[in-house]
Amino acid sequence: MNIQVILPLAIFLIAIFAIGFIASKQMSSTGGFLQEYFLGGRELGGFVLAMTMVATYGSASSFLGGPGTAYTVGFGWILLAMTQVVTGYFVLLILGKKFAILGRKYNAVTMIDFLKARYNSPAVAILSAIAIIIFLFSAMTAQWVGGGRLIESLTGLQYTTALFIFAISVLVYVTIGGFRAVALTDAVQGAIMVVGTLILLIGVIIAGGGVPAIMQDLLNENPRLVTPFGADGKLTAAYVSSFWILVGVGVVGLPQMAVRAMSYKSSRAMHRALVIGTIVTGFIMLNMHLIGVFARPVMPGITVGDKVIPLIALEVLPPWLAGIVLAAPMAAIMSTVDSLLLLVSSAIVKDVYLNFIKPEATEKRVKQISIGVTGILGIIVFLLALQPPDLLIFLNLFAFGGLEAAFIWPIVLGLYWKYGNKYGAILSMITGIASYIAIHFYNTTFGNLLGVHTVTIPVVLSLIAYIIGSLAIQRKAFRF
Amino acid sequence: MPANKHESPGTYKPDPRFKIAHKEALIGVALAIFNFIWWYGFAYGLGSRPPEEYTYILGLPDWFFYSCVVGFILMSVIVIIITKYVLKEVPLDADPYADPNATTKEESPLK
Hints:
heterodimer; A: mainly alpha; Sodium/glucose cotransporter; 19 helices; globular; B: mainly alpha; two-stranded antiparallel sheet; elongated
């Protein structure tokens, strides 16, 4: 591997490290340590809020897996990826000002704090904490493996060394800097993603001889590549549309997104974030997946999807520029991992330790525990990522859709439906996760039930469970 | 009930800011529905023709151009207009019942 490629990557890692470190020095003492460490003191401005949402959401799959699939499937997969534009405005508009107002009113630092106060139920809190810790811990480990593998493939270092470099660069700034460091580095990482995708798209179009020439090549190879139905014609409208739930509106239910919707400073910041988030999400998704499809005629015959982006960048760009562009998927993975690490840590410290084990802990003790838990979690993840156990890989399959099915209704209806209560919430969470796992097995064995993605039916079932549970046991209006 | 411990039953008035918040959440739902119809309509309306009949705009197949490229730009413009002219700025923490000395340690009034 060329030193010219490694240099920009190394500079990127050092820069991120420095930003996180500086952010950690800016931790103010107003509002208490927990608010500061896990929520950045609710002081995020519009730009940083938008970027941290986009960057947390955009992970290895948006930058490596997704474009790799687009390479194989064609324009149908870009159509699918563009369902994500909705997340740019939907999450903030739906959770919206009510979530921010109630979050402040209940003094909630985590999503679980909100659920606990809204449903007045420790059972809801402990159930949510368990779901978050188990599923997001697995998701995080999978992303670390991705980060390690990416450094490995780009630099030629051994996997263990690569993972170590990745772990150190993330762990230090998250542990000492908390949410503020995560959000600020996310902003920089998001900016790198935007610039990186644009450069690479232009590079691929030039290498392919212009868009019409690329299109002609695709048509000559297989006309189905330019239809919405995929290279083999099997991508149905129902299946693609069901991604509106998985990667579109369902994202409202992801704890790592919800916590961000409590973190902004003012409604002005939220308004700015709506605009920036929508534009940036659409821009990144459109560009990355176009690159995947356009790469096909330029570099035919790539069999491993995750390698399409690294290979095409090295093929069409000068080495130093490829290094800058390849910092983008690196940034995407880091910005997801740092958020998940902090979220799992907050679930342990705030939602389990302070709620159930030691509510009277002193400020100093809370600080030690927070930093300690974050650091130890990071080390455990690192060790597990060295050789990921099968159980973890298995749990990761449910992390995204399972959490959506569990939390979407307890959050959304908890905000807007006064008759929602703890029985509905508990029933909804259990139904969501259990049916997700059941339908996952059904789908892998017999093919997709009703031709839609696994997430669809559990989201409907958990809605029904929420309504039945709320009305059947104790019908009483909640006063917000 | 954590939210209204300062009130006696019967005097409960919902926070006036919630009315604005509810309206804006409905706008979010409306935007998503519109976005979906636009996206689906062009993708499968135009895209279901045989590929030989596609026309190309800026080199891209017409169904894709309208559904994904124009759809994305249109949504961005609508979001800009709505945030500028429809969404209202409200204070987030000027809670009449809030204790100004509250810190995180006493987090929710539940306990």
